[in-house]
Design brief:
The structure is a single chain. The N terminus and C terminus are likely disordered. The strands form 2 sheets. This protein has a 4-stranded antiparallel β-sheet with strand order 1-2-4-3. The protein has a two-stranded antiparallel ribbon with strand order 5-6. Helix 14 runs antiparallel to helix 15 and helix 18 packs antiparallel against helix 20. About 65% of the residues lie in helices and about 5% in strands. The radius of gyration is 54 Å and the shape is elongated.
């Protein structure tokens, strides 16, 4: 039995190999004809024969595998040779079969009636077969690269045909003129062809970025930021749908359309664009493909360039606005039209929920901008603040007084009153309003000194007004402490306001002191001086004039207590410097003494008038009594001075020590007398200095 089977194998294997060789030769002719000489040869019958041969090969392999032959038998060697020949033949057969199948697929591309989908399907099968290299010998075949190149050519041709057809079905056109631009979109109503094109494009992973870019740049962006003339017509022409818009290339900000107009236009455009929204499956359509590439950009453009601008910046405007509802409805419309990408579908709804917060921020930004504009007013107008309106910090135990502040700070205070009232009238925005008040006061301490630096440091009245303004704002904080006490930052701001005004005013006082000391450079006294000249008198009069000017600009501006304290401090330093220089003289002649008395008379006649009550100078200026006693010493007789000293118990002892009296010598130098009672204990003689 086995002998009979072996004989069958001996007969069938050469026959099969002969058939394989025959078919390989035919495939070689086909390859040479189509990929070398480009001749057309029909191979449909051959494919059918090869299928039959494939069946015979499988049966033959099965029969040889069932044979059991003694390995020492000659028949075993014959069987092994037949199997080896059969394996080589099968390998050649598979290569020939694959090449012939690929060629047959290429040939089927030219059949009439092939649609875009079928063509794409065939090319996909060819690509799969070309990528499946079952035998490494395929890559070494010189014509195999020709097959790959032909596939690329056919695939590129398909993509190009799809683009051309899509562009015919969906025409996107734009024309620019000198000042205007016209955009036209025409969608043909050939749904079957459009379906084939779009489905095939999606299967070939077509990138619709050019369509998205056109819609964003030429349609949606202008509609969002510019007034447009929009025409949408899907009824007048049975063959197509028309979307046409035109607009100015350059448009002023004040002509931007409101958000309601923008949303209405965008919805109208989407409604008409839906004529090209081919539905591929339950989960895929053209709008979803476009949304994945442009929805986030479109929503961002809409929010930043339209909605943000139209959020009301007043409480009344927000109460009347329906923006939250409108934006939510627009977002629902986009979902209904399947313009969804799965990631940004709730972006507009989230924005709608944040409109109230954005409104509050916008309102507070507007409040801050208004406050800054008030601060920038160059108001030289002064406003009188009565004592019942204005209680200075630290003045609760003293009598209150009126003062002057700038019109600017009065306007700012009134504005802060309104903001604070709005804060408590709108509980939801109270914290943001109060934080804005803190920001306004912080900005005041920075912006106003920087903007008015020259005036504040050079003009005494301006520095006094700024001090009052800061204290006035500080008073406002104290007055509203019960409303602001929950915000710890205001305690710091209150101290900073007070310090800011005081620093500027103290800088002005230091400037005045420096100016006074420079004037006193002319008040020079020395032992070589015979009599006082005009230089000393000019120095004194210059200082007196400086005090009178300060009185003119400060007395009605500063609170009375602050005015008295500031000016009396300057006068006190002035008198101390004058008396120090007089007391430092070792010899005071009668002529110099008389000249000094005249200067002191000028001082005592003018300086008391710096204050509303001239007699107050005795309490306000510490050196005033000493100045008067110095005058008595300079013009008094020896007896009168002795009586004033009264052995260290007289009125002179209030301001002068024995050393100071001893140091001053007038005409006593010529008299050469001693005054034991004027000397300290255990001092007996005053020896004139040489």
């Amino acid at each position: 039995m086995e002998q009979i089977q072996l004989e069958n194998v001996t007969f069938n294997v050469p026959e099969v190999l002969s058939c394989i060789s025959k078919y390989q030769e035919h495939v070689r002719d086909i390859v040479n004809s189509n990929y070398v000489d480009f001749l057309s040869i029909s191979n449909r019958d051959m494919l059918d024969d090869m299928k039959s041969l494939e069946t015979d090969i499988k049966e033959l392999i099965a029969s040889t595998s069932q044979l059991t032959v003694d390995k020492s038998n000659v028949a075993w060697n014959d069987l092994r040779n037949y199997q080896r020949d059969l394996e080589e033949g099968i390998r050649g057969y598979k290569i020939a079969r694959k090449l012939l199948s690929i060629h047959d697929l290429f040939e089927s591309l030219n059949l009439s009636g092939n649609g875009y989908e079928k063509t794409a399907h065939i090319l996909t099968k060819i690509k799969t077969m070309l990528d499946e290299l079952d035998d490494p010998v395929l890559e070494e075949l010189h014509f195999f690269q020709g097959l790959i190149l032909r596939h690329e050519t056919e695939y590129d041709k398909l993509l190009n045909d799809l683009d051309v057809t899509f562009n015919k079905l969906v025409q996107l056109q734009q024309r620019s003129f000198q000042n205007t631009k016209s955009v036209t979109i025409r969608i043909h109503k050939d749904e079957n062809l459009l379906y084939q094109v779009v489905v095939t494009q999606l299967k070939t992973q077509h990138n619709f970025e050019s369509v998205c870019q056109f819609l964003l740049e030429n349609v949606f962006a202008p509609v969002i930021v510019k007034p447009v003339s929009l025409i949408c017509d899907e009824k007048s022409n049975e063959q197509s749908v028309l979307i046409q818009l035109s607009y100015q290339l350059s448009v002023g900000e004040d002509l931007r359309p409101g958000y309601k107009t923008v949303l209405s236009n965008v919805m109208q455009i989407f409604y008409n664009l839906s004529n090209m929204n081919i539905v591929v499956s339950d989960d895929e359509c053209l709008f979803k493909v476009l949304a994945r590439q442009m929805k986030k950009r479109l929503c961002t453009l809409l929010m930043e360039q339209c909605l943000d601008r139209d959020i009301p910046d007043t409480i009344e405007g927000m109460k009347e606005s329906s923006m939250v509802k409108d934006v939510c409805e627009f977002n629902t419309f986009l979902k209904t039209t399947n313009f969804v990408d799965g990631k940004n579908d709730d972006l507009l709804e989230e924005y709608a929920n944040s409109i109230e917060t954005i409104h509050q921020k916008k309102l507070c930004d507007n409040v801050l901008d208004t406050a800054v504009q008030i601060m920038k007013h160059e108001s030289h107008e002064m406003v009188l603040i009565e004592d019942h309106e204005y209680q200075f910090v630290g003045s609760t135990s003293a009598r209150l007084s009126s003062c002057m502040v700038t019109r600017t700070v009065v306007d700012l205070k009134k504005f802060l009153d309104k903001v604070l009232a709005e804060a408590f009238a709108n509980g939801g925005a109270a914290d943001r309003f109060i934080q804005t008040i803190a920001t306004i006061l912080e900005r005041y301490m920075v912006d106003v000194p920087m903007a008015n630096e020259k005036l504040l440091f050079k003009i005494p009245q301006q520095s006094a007004l700024f001090r009052n303004d800061c204290t006035y704002l500080n008073y406002w904080l104290q007055k509203n402490d019960d409303k602001l006490k929950d915000h710890s930052s205001f305690a710091t701001i209150s101290e900073a306001l007070k310090a800011c005004g005081e620093d500027i005013f103290q800088h002005q006082l230091n400037t005045q002191r420096t100016q006074m000391m420079q004037a006193l450079n002319g008040f020079k006294l020395s032992i070589h001086l015979v009599e006082l000249g005009t230089e000393q008198q000019r120095a004194v009069r210059q200082c007196v004039r400086q005090f009178e000017l300060l009185k003119n600009v400060w007395q009605t501006v500063l609170p009375e207590s602050v005015y008295k304290q500031s000016l009396s401090g300057l006068v006190d330093q002035f008198l101390r410097e004058i008396m120090k220089r007089i007391q430092n003289l070792e010899d005071i002649t009668t002529a110099i003494g008389n000249g000094l008395v005249l200067l002191i008379d000028i001082i005592t006649e003018t300086l008391p008038n710096l204050f509303k009550e001239p007699s107050e100078i005795h309490q306000l200026v510490k050196q005033w009594t000493k100045l008067l006693q110095l005058r008595q010493i300079l013009c008094g007789s020896l007896v009168e001075i002795t009586e004033l000293w009264a052995e260290g118990k007289g009125p002179l002892t209030m301001c002068f020590s024995a050393e100071e009296i001893k140091h001053m010598r007038i005409i006593w130098k010529m008299m050469m007398i001693t005054i034991p009672s004027m000397l300290r204990p255990k001092e007996y003689h005053w020896i004139p200095r040489k």
